[in-house]
Design goal:
Largest sheet: 5 strands, antiparallel
Helix content: 40-55%
Number of helices: 25
Strand order of the largest sheet: 1-2-3-4-5
Oligomer: single chain
Distance between the termini: 75 Å
């Protein structure tokens, strides 16, 4: 049974590997990743690592690895199709039957085209006499014409069927409008526009598709904001407003704002690395999405109580996702939009630079819970403080915070650091040694059964894996690589097979995430691919290093050719010598 890429993509987004794996084993945070005792072999020290940013796992003890589908195949003893059905049932999806998926693909295509037409309609309505109120609202919010065009902002006329009449003239049905959540069907079976007398914010995905809309009222009516519900092309928990712009920012930091206007105001002020959730609190899926585009994030929520509660929740999700988070404390304004209007972009930039990291923010809140004039409470505060900073992985960070506590509570820094290190030893005693050196006697040790030639040609195999990793992360280099080396020039046969498969996927415009290799590779082969990804993820792969990898393989190929020529020369000489003796005997 062939399962389409579009459904696998839907399943992949719905199945968080951390959630799935943690339902079988206990996961513990270790840096940006999570670790656990491997369920596929006996061990005392955790050696299975879950990489949340790539939604993959790899065990350094037994070599098992892959994606969430591979994990289910191994732990439930299922084949590929059974594992897909198992996961689909778990998250409430139905695996499409033959032909059904084509129908869904056409439906999605129609909805995307309909959304694009609706966005054009709303934008044109804003510029028409009917849209004066909407234009006045944006002017009052000090948005420029350029910003309005950049975001494709619009206005939904104060009529019941304005959009419906327009899209009907373009060949779309009322049923399709309802499916796209642009129209609502009443109890008596009549359809009417969902968005009326609201300014409109189109929601655009990373490919430039209009996938949904947000609408804000122009008066005091409720709800203040109305957002698209989930549709076949839109899942609000898995998308972020303005990520289509933020992903192109050279900044390695993303700013997370609370609403559309905060994002647009910051963008207009020159801060293009800003995104917002879509009418809901931040989700784990959105936190993981942010981790793909940023090394750290600044949470810039409103300064009111609700904003502070949301900040705490968001910081916990970023911690789970392994993203360095900082908290923006806004004083003198209720939100970033108001702050920029009041104090200007330069002051806001300074405010961003002064944002506190999550640990500093947590320590500030910790201190607010204790009366440090009371000795008993001070002891509790010191203990909790030390416990909190003992979980930091950066030694320099621990040193700095230990120094702050020493000054604050009139302690010696050495005593604080001693307590911190004592707590660290208690927590990480079983994690200090390398995983494979602590594998108990008789336990399975990793043997590369998939690519046994790797033992014979370790340098060349490592170079091949460097090319494979580079190509998976930079598919646009495929022509550059193929101009210099072909699959048949790879030394090890399995890497050669994988190289050819990756090239085929790139040429067919297929996704390159680990999940999409399950159909072509066995679970053991998926483990081998996961190992390549795991071993190379922290290396600096540049175009220069790619050239070095290619040179290593070509150099070995030249050596083989020279040896082959040398061998034939010796054979020829031996044959010539025998011929001489034979002729001499005849004389």
């Amino acid at each position: 049974m062939a399962i389409s890429e579009s459904f696998i993509q839907q399943l992949r987004m719905a199945c968080d590997i951390t959630s799935i794996v943690s339902s079988y084993v206990e996961l513990k945070r270790e840096g940006r990743n999570k670790k656990c005792l491997c369920p596929f072999h006996l061990e005392k020290t955790p050696s299975l690592v879950v990489y949340e940013d790539t939604q993959s796992f790899y065990c350094f003890g037994c070599g098992t690895g892959g994606d969430v589908i591979t994990f289910i195949m191994k732990i439930e003893n299922l084949d590929y199709v059974e594992a897909v059905k198992f996961l689909a049932a778990r998250v409430g999806l139905t695996v499409p039957e033959d032909g059904q998926d084509d129908k869904l693909a056409k439906q999605r295509s129609r909805i995307l085209a309909l959304n694009r037409e609706a966005a054009r309609f709303f934008h044109q309505s804003l510029k028409s006499p009917e849209g004066r109120e909407g234009l006045a609202y944006f002017a009052q919010r000090r948005l420029t014409k350029k910003t309005i065009i950049t975001y494709g902002l619009g206005y939904a006329p104060n009529q019941w069927h304005a959009l419906l009449d327009h899209i009907k003239s373009k060949g779309y049905s009322y049923e399709e409008a309802a499916l796209a959540d642009l129209a609502i069907k009443s109890k008596n079976g009549r359809y009417y526009d969902k968005f009326r007398n609201r300014v409109i914010f189109p929601i655009i995905d990373l490919r430039g598709n209009v996938i949904g809309f947000g609408g804000r009222v122009l008066d005091d009516s409720k709800p203040k904001y109305l957002n698209s519900s989930d549709t076949p092309v839109f899942k609000k928990s898995r998308n972020l407003f303005s990520l289509n712009f933020a992903k192109n920012s050279p900044e390695k930091t993303l700013i997370l704002a609370e609403g559309y206007m905060d994002v647009i105001a910051m963008y207009q002020a020159g801060f293009h690395n800003v995104v917002a959730t879509l009418g809901t609190a931040l989700t784990a899926e959105q936190a993981r999405l942010i981790s793909r585009y940023a090394d750290d994030v600044i949470i810039a929520y409103d300064s009111d109580e609700a904003g502070q509660i949301a900040t705490t929740r968001a910081s916990n999700l970023f911690e789970e996702a392994g993203v360095e988070a900082r908290v923006l404390e806004i004083t003198g304004a209720k939100d970033p939009d108001e702050y920029i209007k009041t104090y200007g972009a330069d002051r806001f930039k300074v405010l961003l630079e002064q944002s506190e990291n999550v640990i500093k923010n947590k320590l500030k809140r910790l201190k607010s819970r204790y009366n440090l004039d009371e000795p008993e409470e001070q002891v509790k505060y010191i203990h909790e403080y030390c416990l909190m900073i003992s979980e930091l992985y950066d030694k320099l960070e621990r040193d700095v915070y230990a120094g702050s506590l020493a000054v604050e509570c009139n302690l010696s820094k050495a005593a604080v650091l001693e307590q911190v290190e004592h707590l660290r030893k208690q927590q990480y005693r079983r994690k200090k040694s390398k995983e494979w050196k602590e594998i108990q006697s008789g336990k399975a040790v990793y043997v590369d059964k998939i690519n046994p030639e790797r033992v014979k040609y370790p340098k060349e195999a490592k170079a091949e894996e460097g090319i494979l990793y580079f190509l998976l992360n930079h598919p646009d280099f495929v022509s550059y690589i193929l101009e210099r080396i072909q699959p048949e020039q790879f030394i090890t046969s399995w890497n050669q097979k994988l190289f050819a498969l990756i090239i085929q996927k790139i040429q067919q415009n297929s996704p390159l995430e680990l999940t999409y290799f399950n159909e072509q590779l066995s679970p053991d082969e998926m483990g081998r691919l996961a190992r390549i990804l795991s071993e190379n993820r922290d290396l600096n792969h540049t175009k220069e290093s790619l050239d070095d990898y290619i040179a290593v393989i070509l150099q070995h190929a030249h050596k083989l050719q020279d040896a082959e020529r040398s061998r034939f020369s010796l054979d020829d000489y031996e044959q010539y010598r025998q011929e001489l003796f034979k002729n001499k005997g005849k004389k």
